[in-house]
UniProtKB/TrEMBL annotation:
Name of this protein: Uncharacterized protein
InterPro entries in the record: Ntn_hydrolases_N, Peptidase_T2
GO cellular component: lysosome
UniProt keyword list: Signal
Family from the record: Belongs to the Ntn-hydrolase family.
Secretion signal, residue range per the UniProt entry: 1-19
Gene Ontology molecular function: N4-(beta-N-acetylglucosaminyl)-L-asparaginase activity
Length: 320
């Protein structure tokens, strides 16, 4: 399991005059990230500057213990990061996945967008590019992450979410030998509401910003419609492109809350017990959120700052 920082920055250029604009919104109760983005925006920074500042704050603070360096290690004990930034006006995208040795993943994603013709760089290629661009290479592990890895090794049970393995398909433990015959209808759920490894943030300045390295899955933005960002079980959610779906629903006239709920419902039809949530905002600065109701997640919390309240406000939505 990778400790993924999936961040998408979206910019939507809207006319001035909306009472609820500018708007900053991000997944999870990461107040300092919201405040940092709002401060950058109101001190003359661009929308992308604000997004990068807000997301970088979570990288430094290791929000929720899962975002940024020191997050959940992979099977070799290494922490790697993901990030994505998107401009919803130009549709430019920059993303990194499996980034090693570089703490400022959102900064590298922006560099990919602005300094290359690529959309995404992965693994060692992303790390080498970052170092070539002047980003500092440093160890992303901490005593905490190494202790987690040590406990996995001690118990011979690393939460890598493998399935259909011997000896017990109900556990993601070794030995990792595929079964010759498996029950294709059996699905094992490993729910951990702290395993999101994600902050999703967007701004309507009259612009917007968001989260995740897979465009349309973790986040999406279009200046003519709105923006959305998802968080949770990314391996499931990326199969449905919920952020893209939500934006298209808003383009067709759905309000943000309705768009978010429909995107979650689409996934629930196939994975009723998946862990996930999504936030949405349209071009007028109206916003909404939705989440799947599972044990440990009766509500989903997110942060908002707009022209009506410059102090970051904690919002919540009942899961369904």
């Amino acid at each position: 399991m990778f400790a993924s920082l999936r961040i998408l920055a979206l910019t939507l250029l809207f006319p001035l005059g909306h009472a609820s604009l500018p708007l900053v919104i991000n997944t999870w109760p990461f107040r300092n990230a919201t405040a940092a983005a709002w401060s950058a925006l109101n001190s003359g920074g661009s929308v992308l500057d604000a997004v990068e500042r807000g997301c970088a704050r979570c990288e430094v603070e290791q929000c929720d213990g899962t975002v940024g360096y020191g997050g959940s290690p992979d099977e070799s004990g290494e922490t790697t990061l993901d990030a994505l930034i998107m401009n919803g006006d130009t549709m430019e995208v920059g993303a990194v996945a499996d980034l090693r040795r570089i703490k400022n993943a959102i900064g590298v994603a922006r560099a990919v967008m602005e300094l290359t013709d690529h959309t995404m760089l992965v693994g060692e290629s992303a790390s080498v590019f970052a170092e070539n661009m002047g980003f500092t290479a440093e160890d992303l592990t901490t005593d905490k992450s190494m202790n987690i890895f040590s406990q996995w090794l001690k118990g011979d049970c690393q939460p890598n979410y493998r399935k259909n393995v011997i000896p017990d398909p109900s556990k993601s433990c070794g030995p990792y030998k595929a079964r010759t015959a498996v029950n294709q209808n059996k699905r094992v759920t490993h729910l951990n509401t702290r395993s999101h490894d994600t902050i999703g943030q967007f701004k309507i300045q009259p612009d917007i910003t968001w989260d995740s390295p897979i465009v349309g899955a973790g986040a999406y933005a279009d200046s003519s419609a709105g923006a959305a960002a998802a968080t949770g079980d990314g391996d499931v959610m990326m199969r449905f492109l919920p952020s893209y779906l939500a934006v298209e629903l808003m383009r067709a006239g759905a309000d943000p809350s309705e768009a978010c709920r429909t995107a979650i419902s689409r996934i629930k039809r196939h994975y009723s017990d998946f862990f996930g949530a999504i936030i949405c905002a349209n071009t007028t600065g109206h916003y909404g959120a939705a989440c799947n109701k599972v044990s440990g997640l009766p509500q989903f919390h997110f942060m908002v700052s707009n022209s009506e309240s410059v102090t970051p406000l904690l919002k919540s939505v009942d899961c369904f």
